[in-house]
Amino acid sequence: MVATANSLVTAICTDLQLWTLLLLAAVTSLFLADFLKNRRPKNYPPGPWRLPFVGNLLQLDLDKSHLVMQQFVKKYGNIISMDIGNIHSVIITGLPLIKEVFTHMEQKFLKRPITPIRERVFNNNGLIMSNGQTWREQRRFALMTLRNFGLGKKSLEQCIREEAQHLVEAIAEEGGQPFDPQFNINSAVSNVICSLTFGERFAYEDEQFQELLRLLDEATCLEASMICQLYNVFPSIFKYLPGPHQRVFRNWGRLRLFVSHMMDSHRKDWNPIEPRDFIDAFLTEMTKYPDKTTSFNEENLICSTLDLFFAGTETTSHTLRWALLYMALYPEVQEKVQAEIDEVIGQKRQPSTDDRESMPYSNAVIHEVQRMGNIVPLNVPREVTTDITLAGFHLPKGTMILTNLTALHRDPKVWATPDTFNPKHFLENGQFKKRESFLPFSMGKRACLGEQLARSELFIFFTALMQQFTFKPPINEKLSTKFRMGLTLSPVSHRICAVPRQRCWRRNEKEEKEGHAL
């Protein structure tokens, strides 16, 4: 009996040893395969030591990854390598290198890298992350369509000015009491792009509209989280696991469904000869290619519309929130802006983009907000399309390129007070001064296609709010410039007070009309 038990134990131990050896061999093989696959080629840019599978991911604090990277830049130089999970990436720093990549060598950097999350949500469709023929067709069409619907014209500016009225009136209802400006600002900015894409604006209290903005904000914030980055490394595993990545997919799914319903609604009274908005124009374009040899299909309509909705909402609204925050933190700057507004515009008419040339200080403040706000700190990534040599280093095909806009916008060799809010950075002898080292919209063929729209919105919304209100910190509450990291960088939630300076234009205009009628 005892002998039988001993034999059984011996057999189990032997089996365990065998399984241990097999497991060890399997793990060793995986690590060896990862090492051989991902070892750096000869003359590759220097960078920190990486771990198998996850690369340098665990060395980055994803809540402030753009700041952590600056430490590596100081150690390794202006062109460094880091592996974001299993994605080989190179971070380039300094204007000379950035210009080299986005001007002289841009044909080799036009591609966007597609992560598993992006592939699952957009699959090379839309405007931002698409490539090749799809990107060329969609960008060309979007630019043409936006121009047809008023981009750069007074018709679209009037739409922005009307939305500025709604925003001023909504903030006036707060009665100077502390409130979180995110709700009203997101609604106002998003309504401009909604007018272009959907052909209508939404009431700020519209529940469906607010749900769309919430879904977008949550998805873009969660997509930068550690779990979502791990999904990009191990998609075949994480797709079965619960977590924030699943919420990202659900949110984008619901956003896609909304656009799909809008598309179906447009079809009911669609007139191909007289398109009302981007969706109508896209539906008309689809009829020109019945053989489906182009990217003009329903999937690209949904994805391009979502890209416009995202890009036309997130970046400009975050910049405006930073603007109000900085005005409350720097009251002396706010006073100078208001003095310029009172002198140039007065108090009885709305601001217009025609006023911008006569308002160098306000223009400088907006640019300084963009510099300090740093909305897209590492730019939208690019990918090398063929083996190249950059600054003497070898970059293999498929390498992801990140542009260090954080370092560019905080370079002590360029900016007098790089870490301090200072509108004088954009002034010279009292006049507005353009700065070459200022690239919030990127540069080259894949630069932000909505730059002109964003500039108009920022000027009109900002000057309209400064004309009507003085922004202050709530009593016994301290404001800070802490940020929340997502696909874009935004202020953390905060409250602010908007103290009215005068009555809003709409009320003044009504009173003037009534006075003339009498």
Description:
- The chain has 518 residues and is α+β, with helices and mostly antiparallel strands.
- It has a single domain (121-405, 424-517), classed as Cytochrome p450 (Orthogonal Bundle).
- The protein is 53% helix and 8% strand.
- It contains 19 helices and twelve strands.
- The strands form five sheets. The chain has a four-stranded mixed beta sheet. The protein has a two-stranded antiparallel sheet with strand order 4-5.
- Helix 6 packs parallel to helix 18 (451-468).
- The longest helix has 37 residues, at 2-38.
- The radius of gyration is 26 Å and the shape is globular.
- Mean pLDDT is 90; it is low at 26-36 and 504-518.
The fourth-level CATH homologous superfamily is Cytochrome P450
Number of domains: 1
Largest sheet: 4 strands, mixed
Q: Just name the CATH architecture.
A: Orthogonal Bundle
Task: Write a brief structural summary.
With about 525 residues, the chain is of the alpha+beta class. It has one domain: Cytochrome P450 (Cytochrome p450, Orthogonal Bundle), CATH 1.10.630.10. The chain has 19 helices and twelve strands.
